[in-house]
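Question (not urgent): is this output format expected?
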Amino acid sequence: MKAGVITLHSVCNYGTQLQAYATQEKLKQYFEDVVFIDYRRPDTYGINLIKTFTKGNILKAPVILPTIAYWKKVFGGFQKKYLKFTEEKYLKIDDFNNFKDIADVYFSGSDQVWNTGWNNGVIPPFYLSFVPDDKPRYAYASSFGKTKIDEKDITEAKKYLDKYNKIAVREDTGVEILKKQFGINDAIRILDPTLAMDSNFWRKVKTKNKIKEDYILIYNLNRSKEFDEYAEELAKRTGYKLYRFCTRLDQIFRNGKSLIMPDIFDFITLVDDAKLVLTDSFHATAFSINMNTEPVCIYPNEYSSRLSDFLKLVNCTDRHAKNFKDFSVLDNKIKFEEVNEILSKERKKVDEYLNEVLNDVKEFYGNKNE
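Got this back:
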């Protein structure tokens, strides 16, 4: 059987690419063929991408253009080599009017496909609006990215969600949203696909690390002076060197030795080999925990529920620095044996869900052929 998947693959973000890869590899354990629907959200390519990062001021375009060119090489190269896409590209929602049905079953997710903040409202294709009515549809660790959906988006999203055969979301807050705002009571929470694959899986794609000294890896998505000052103090207290994972060229001017837009699998290496990972990113936190590297988490101002939900799941909430003066996290060492046991049990839930999906699909086509 062939599975079609729609996710946020066109976003130039390391966590996004790695979750897409993990989604593909996990689903390949259950389906003979897995292909991503090549839909690109308008603000993730071309002139709209430039407008996003210049906040509409095109005069600033020369500053971001070198970064975009680098992204194309790093992210585009990874996708071409490791991810399988439909031949057809869908660059706007109307393009789905001519959608070519290419799979036996369809999935949305994972990542924040249902985040109406990032997506500027409901984007119907992320709710499988294009899937023919005679094909089963499922959510695989889809995320709302926040604790509540705006009232104006509920009616439209519900008409698509009601068509799903089964729904699995990435956070407990997602389960609550579905219950309280959509009246969907049978959704479950499962691990993000990157966590569904254990550390042994990721170490098979790990690259060689050129760093020879003990270091703190900084992976910071939301720029702030306080964050950088916190990193300096963390380095003083631990004696470790600061290395900054730069996702943009302009980040080379911030503190720490710059690692300029490494290859995608270098992310695994740099997290795995670090003494500490200082981050405000969900996926950097998830990989740290998965690879048994101690994280220091600073919650972002927006969409922090995905981070807090995950730390609660693995009983690591004391790795959250409550403010930029809080260094108590250094005293709260993670009991990784307990964490690994929790993740192992949670991975079984992922397999249980996907087995249910597979049996559901087989039954669907069995009944259809009778």
